Every structure is written in C-alpha cells, then in structure tokens.
Inverse folding.
C-alpha cells in the first residue's frame, strides 16, 4: 500500500504544511483540479493537485473544499505556488489541520506529469513486490511438496 507518508518521504521538492497526522492515507491515483466541479470527478484515493488556476479564479470553492476531499476519500492535496497563489490559502491550511488531511506545497517548477508518473511508478513497484513475494512463497511451497513426494517411493 502506498501511503502519503511513504510516497512523499523521497520527494525533497514538496513539503507538508498541514494535516500531518493524516499522512497514513492510501494513494491509489492522481488528479488535477481542472474544473470548479472537480469533486464530481473524484472517486477516492487521489493525491489531488492544484495549479491554482481554478481556485484562484473561483475562491468560493475553497470553503469546505478540504472537508469534501476527505469525505470523497482522497489522500492529500498539493498546491503549486508562485503562479496563481504565492501561499496556500489559510482556509485550506486550517481545514487540513482540523481534519488531519495532508496539505502539501508544490514548487512552481514541478511538472504534474512527472508527479503523476512517480505516483504510478511507486504503486506499480509495490504491486510487483507483492507478486514476487507471492511467487516466492508459492515456489517454496512447491519445492517443499516436491521434496516430500520424491521420497514417497
């Protein structure tokens, strides 16, 4: 399982600024806030990122936004700085802390495609590790039974 904490621990360019106690949330995908109706397009598990374009031009969606993300089962929210927002809006930080929902600062030079790739790569590697562990267990089981059977004669 890829959690917010184990995913972000290797990423020096991003920084958790609120909701520290919620970093055990599971990440299953990635989504970009590209519409004011983003909540209609989330199904849970997403590390949601915001370039600031939608939230800057529609600040009314920020009220209750973090609570809605948490209710949807999202994993975390990352906000890109120095394009539209120079700092993360206080309502986001306050709600992140109040609801234990992780909020991250993302640098301006972070490419969302690279961020998404990193999330999906980490999930793939974890699934591959699980499969290899299962294969190792299956192989040990087969070797054990083979060794038992070869001495039955």
């Amino acid at each position: 399982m890829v959690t917010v904490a184990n995913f972000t621990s290797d990423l020096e360019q991003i920084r958790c600024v609120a909701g520290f106690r919620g970093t055990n949330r599971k990440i299953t995908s990635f989504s970009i806030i590209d519409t004011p109706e983003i909540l209609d397009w989330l199904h849970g598990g997403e590390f949601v990122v915001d370039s600031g374009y939608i939230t800057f031009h529609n600040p009314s969606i920020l009220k209750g936004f973090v609570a809605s993300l948490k209710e949807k089962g999202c994993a975390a929210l990352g906000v890109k700085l120095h394009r539209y927002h120079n700092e993360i809006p206080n309502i986001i930080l306050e709600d992140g802390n109040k609801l234990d929902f992780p909020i991250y600062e993302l640098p301006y030079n972070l490419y969302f495609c690279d961020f998404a790739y990193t999330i999906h790569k980490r999930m793939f590697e974890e699934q591959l590790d699980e499969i290899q562990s299962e294969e190792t267990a299956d192989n040990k089981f087969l070797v054990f039974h083979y060794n038992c059977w070869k001495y039955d004669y």
Observations:
- The longest strand covers residues 46-50.
- The chain has a mean pLDDT of 89.
- Helices lie at 4-8, 53-57, 65-72, 90-99, 112-149.
